[in-house]
Amino acid sequence: MGFGFSGVNHIALVTNDMETTVKFWRDLLGMRLVLCMGRKGYRQYFFEIDERNLLLFFEWPEVEQIPAKDHGVPVKGPFAFDHLSIGVRELKDLFQLKDTLEAAGFWVSEVVDHGFILSIYSFDPNEIPIEFSVQVPKNDVRKKPILKDKHPLKVTLEGPEPVEGRWPRPSAESPQEHRIYPGEGLDYFRG
């Protein structure tokens, strides 16, 4: 199989205050603002995490700020997002982020050792739970997966690799229309 995945292109989050959001992600954390699109009552801004990953914020002025919720703590009722973890290259980067966030008045956890990553936890101005993590090189689960659930699902026992044949595949004989439709932002790139 394989679709040529290259990582997460972007993660889309929501704010009702783009100005404060830009000041936090661009000015405090140093992520370049690489694309700004919008119109009255709606805008979307992209921040560059690194050369392959982007963070997007939609600004919806009427959206209510989410209630504060600690990372990984279960909740009841409808819910779709727990927290965003952004990787850093080295441990010194993690400590620098901790110092930077604290100096700016944001709460930041101590560095937590999860065995495969070391992490700090905080919240952005929109109360979005954020984590910053550095890989523990000797315990890289991408290279050596660890599937040690004490109560594993049957599907987990099949191992880490994708299982072929579980889902129907598109038929080579069935004609499909492959079209590209105009979307938000296209006008910004037309001459």
* Alpha-carbon distance between the two ends: 38 Å
Task: Name the CATH homologous superfamily of the domain at 83-158.
Answer: 2,3-Dihydroxybiphenyl 1,2-Dioxygenase, domain 1
Which strands sit side by side, in order, in the main sheet? 1-4-3-2
The coarse overall form would be globular
What would CATH call the architecture of the domain at 83-158? Roll
Helical content band:
10-25%
CATH level 3 topology of the domain at 83-158: 2,3-Dihydroxybiphenyl 1,2-Dioxygenase, domain 1
CA-atom Rg in angstroms: 20 Å
Mean pLDDT: 87
CATH class of the domain at 83-158: Alpha Beta
In total, how many beta strands? 8
The DSSP helix count reads: 3
Uncertain spans = none
Q: Give me the strand/helix succession.
A: EHEEEEHEEEH
General description of the model:
The structure is a single chain. With 191 residues, the chain is an alpha/beta fold. Among the domains are: 9-63, 2,3-Dihydroxybiphenyl 1,2-Dioxygenase, domain 1 (Roll); 83-158, Roll (2,3-Dihydroxybiphenyl 1,2-Dioxygenase, domain 1), CATH 3.10.180.10. 15% of the residues lie in helices and 25% in strands. It contains 3 helices and 8 strands, in the order βαββββαβββα. It has helices at residues 18-28, 91-103, 186-189; strands spanning 10-15, 32-39, 42-48, 54-59, 84-88, 112-113, 117-123, 129-135. The strands form 2 sheets. Strands 1-4-3-2 form a 4-stranded mixed beta sheet, covered by helices on one side. It has a 4-stranded mixed beta sheet with strand order 5-8-7-6, covered by helices on one side. The radius of gyration is 20 Å and the shape is globular. The relative contact order is 0.14. The model has no long low-confidence stretch (mean pLDDT 87).
